[in-house]
C-alpha cells in the first residue's frame, strides 16, 4: 500500500472517529438538556405545590436563604372568620356534601382576602385566619382587611344563592378583626413547619369574632383597628366588651358598609 493511500485511510479513520465522538457528545448534551428541563419542570411544580401551603414570598425566601426559624416583629391586622351554626350543619349533612360546601366556601373567602393584599394563614376546622401586613409593610392594612371582610360578606351572599339553588342550606359567618404587634416567622418542628404570626393579636381577633353571636353584626372590629380606618367606613359603636385574657374592656364596632 502506497504512502498516499495510507494517509487517506488514516484521515478517513480520524474523520470517522471525530464524527462518532461528536455524535456521542451531541447525544449526551441532548440527554443532559432534557434532564435539566425535566428537573426545572419538577422544581417549578414543587414550588407551586409548596406555594399552596405558604405565601409565595416565604417560598422564595426559603429557596434563596434556606429555612430560618428567626422571627420578625411586626404590626399586623388579623382577620378571624368562623361559620355560625357549623356543628348543627355538620350533623344534618352527609360528609361528602359538607366537604364540597366547605371547599366552595373557603375558595370564595380566600379569593376575597387575597384580592385585598391579605393571605390566609390557617384553616382551623370551619374557621380561617387571615393576616394583613405580615409579609411586607402595609400602611393601609386596616383598610384592606375591612374591605376584605366586606368582600367576604358579598361572596357569601352570592354563594348562598348557589347553595339554595342546589337545595342546600345557606351559610352564615362571623368575622372579627384586630390590629396589634407580634412576631411573624416559620414555626414548627422537624416534621412540620408553617409560616405563622405569634402574639395576642390573633387571640383578640378570634374572641371578637365570638362576640358576633351576641350582637346584631357579622363583622366586628376593635377600637385599635377603628382608629386607623378610612372614615368612609360606616361603623356602629357598641359598649366596651370584656374579653377573656384581656385586662381592660375592648372597644367594639360593627362594620355596616363603605361609603362610595
Explain what you see.
Helix content is 48%, strand content 27%. Strands 1, 2, 3, 4, 5, 6, 7 and 8 form an 8-stranded mixed β-sheet that branches. The longest helix has 49 residues, at 3-51. It starts with a helix and ends with a strand. The chain has helices at 3-51, 56-65, 86-92, 95-114, 141-165, 200-210, 223-226; strands spanning 72-83, 118-124, 127-132, 173-188, 193-198, 219-222, 233-241, 250-258. It folds into 2 domains: 1-52; 69-258, 2-Layer Sandwich (Alpha-Beta Plaits), CATH 3.30.70.1230. It has 7 helices and 8 strands. Helix 4 runs antiparallel to helix 5. The chain is of the alpha+beta class and 260 residues long. It is extended and about 95 Å long.
Amino acid at each position: 500500500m502506497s504512502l498516499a493511500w495510507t494517509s487517506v485511510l488514516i484521515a478517513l479513520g480520524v474523520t470517522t472517529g471525530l464524527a462518532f465522538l461528536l455524535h456521542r457528545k451531541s447525544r449526551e448534551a441532548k440527554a443532559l438538556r432534557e434532564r435539566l428541563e425535566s428537573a426545572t419542570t419538577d422544581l417549578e411544580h414543587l414550588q407551586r405545590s409548596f406555594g399552596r401551603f405558604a405565601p409565595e414570598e416565604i417560598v422564595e425566601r426559603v429557596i434563596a436563604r434556606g429555612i430560618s426559624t428567626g422571627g420578625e416583629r411586626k404590626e399586623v391586622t388579623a382577620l378571624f372568620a368562623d361559620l355560625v351554626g357549623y356543628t348543627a350543619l355538620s350533623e344534618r349533612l352527609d360528609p361528602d356534601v359538607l366537604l364540597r360546601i366547605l371547599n366552595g366556601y373557603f375558595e370564595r373567602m380566600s379569593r376575597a382576602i387575597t384580592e385585598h393584599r391579605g393571605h390566609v394563614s390557617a384553616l382551623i376546622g370551619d374557621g380561617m385566619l387571615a393576616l394583613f401586613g405580615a409579609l411586607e409593610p402595609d400602611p393601609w392594612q386596616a383598610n384592606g382587611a375591612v374591605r376584605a371582610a366586606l368582600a367576604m360578606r358579598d361572596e357569601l351572599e352570592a354563594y348562598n344563592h348557589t347553595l339554595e339553588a342546589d337545595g342546600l342550606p345557606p351559610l352564615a359567618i362571623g368575622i372579627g378583626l384586630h390590629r396589634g404587634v407580634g412576631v411573624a416567622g416559620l414555626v414548627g418542628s422537624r416534621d412540620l413547619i408553617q409560616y405563622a404570626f405569634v402574639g395576642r393579636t390573633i387571640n383578640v381577633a378570634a374572641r371578637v369574632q365570638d362576640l358576633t353571636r351576641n350582637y346584631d353584626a357579622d363583622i366586628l372590629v376593635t377600637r385599635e383597628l377603628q382608629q386607623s380606618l378610612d372614615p368612609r367606613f360606616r361603623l356602629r359603636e357598641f359598649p366596651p366588651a370584656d374579653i377573656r385574657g384581656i385586662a381592660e374592656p375592648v372597644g367594639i364596632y360593627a362594620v355596616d358598609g363603605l361609603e362610595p
